[in-house]
Amino acid sequence: MTEKTKLINPRLPRGFEDRTPGDIAAVGQMIETIRRVYERYGFDPVETPLFEFTETLGKFLPDTDRPNAGVFSLQDDDEQWMSLRYDLTAPLARYFAENFETLPKPYRSYRQGYVFRNEKPGPGRFRQFMQFDADTVGAPGAEADAEMCMMMADVMDALGLGGKYVVRVNNRKVLDGVLEAAGVTSDEQKLSVLRAVDKLDKFGPEGVKLLLGAGRKDESGDFTKGAGLTDAQAAVVLDYVAGKPPADNEGVAELNTMQALFDAAGYGTDKIKIDPSVVRGLEYYTGPVFEIELTFKVQNEKGQDVVFGSVGGGGRYDGLVSRFRREPVPATGFSIGVSRLANALKLTGNLGSKEPVGPVVVLVMDKDQTARYQAMVSELRKAGIRAEMFLGSTKNFGKQVSYADKRNAPAVIIEGSQEREQGILQIKDLVAGKQAAEGITDNAEWKAARPGQFEVKREDLVSAIQKLLSEQ
Asked: Aminoacyl-transfer RNA synthetases class-II family profile domain location, by residue (predicted)?
């Protein structure tokens, strides 16, 4: 490379992040816990690709020449548009429809993986993030929706969040009945009303009342335009928010069925609660909707105490699969935001944050003896122990040990010429060494003590390391 060659600046695009071994191990443990709960309920895994034909994504397909608003898209060599999946639900609907004749019905599956949003990133808002979904396709009754809520509660309990969450449940049919009773007919106004109701926890009834009317001005002076309802129309919505659902509503009957199932299964309102303020944003929900809210306090960017909030949710979407088939296909499911949930577990101390234990490192004291060192590594690996030979260019003992420290190695193996002549090895226990180092301040004392270091016969290498690891 010449001096004039311009170096590339190593940087990530906005809205994406790298993951370290510690992050991967901690999240992997969390995902395994969730998976066990899903499988206990009888759900099986399925995996769909990252790309789908853009038309498969349904409502996310914008009416433009290049369909990339909200999704990342490219045109195939046969001029068909493909997009990175926006969520895990639309691909499931496609998969079910494509394999309709062979799949059992109801079809119960779970999926875990990355999804992509071509949106402006911000604090805690990424353009690539992981979701973990479970869905039942082909079950029309509220029993399937109730099961989803109970499974969500069991997941939270399994993750150690008992007492720190509530699964909140509502029904879009109830909301539709309220809007009809209030005389709200335009789609734009309906959306504004639903957004207002969704702010009940944040702004309270008075704040919702303002958002249902002309609008609301916050403490900073920013004004949010309201739904423009009359006082009489707003009163119908506010009665509903206060816990007075419309009579003779199909959604109310479904909620009553779900509540009976919760009661029978022993899920009290401290775990699952019917809540009229639950809206859920996606337009494809057609019945019960639910979300997991974590109820403990955290500080926002302004230093204010706020409830952590939602880490997942879902609902019934009976129309989504019907985009691919003429007959109606009922479906219900929920999605967990893995990154957000991992952040919550970290805050509550329920997410392992330690770096995974690294490999035992065999130091290279003499370059002409690498075959001997490789033999040691192979013995350890065959015994099921993570191990590696130092492959760097330095001969410096201290730098090789420093490398092992950075790898979070539990121990290093040392064989110089003297050890080789005597048929022994030096094993340096890096964990014990670090602990001993806390009480040693004098460098001469450190060298004399050689804390955590002991010798074994060459033939006892594997058993000595096994014993050391079990003690650590």
From this structure: 30-359
